[in-house]
Amino acid sequence: MKKAMTLIAALAFMMTTLGSVHAATLKCTVEKIEGTVVTMDCGEKAANLSAGAKVKVKTEKAKTAIEGC
Fold it and tell me: CA 49 to CA 46: how far, in whole Å?
């Protein structure tokens, strides 16, 4: 019974970490925007991308100063 529970726990851990293995973080610079098409320069790491791959883009937020009284 202990072996079965250990195996189940190991499989559950493996399944939760598989999703994070596929994701990669790239820092890119926007080169130009034409309508709905955005061209970005990702340098050497662009080789990790393939045509048709889904990409999540986050923009950098401007830091705001907190003013006190």
Answer: 6
How confident is the model over 5-43, as pLDDT tens digits? Answer: 888 888 887 777 665 555 667 888 889 999 998 888 888
Tokens of 22: 């596929």
Query: How far is residue 29's CA from residue 27's CA, in Å, rounded to a whole number?
Result: 7
Query: Within 13 Å of residue 54, how many CA atoms lie on the same side as its CB?
Result: 3
Those residues with Cβ within 8 angstroms of residue 14's Cβ, 6 or more apart along the chain or in another chain: none
Task: Provide the whole-model pTM.
Answer: 0.46
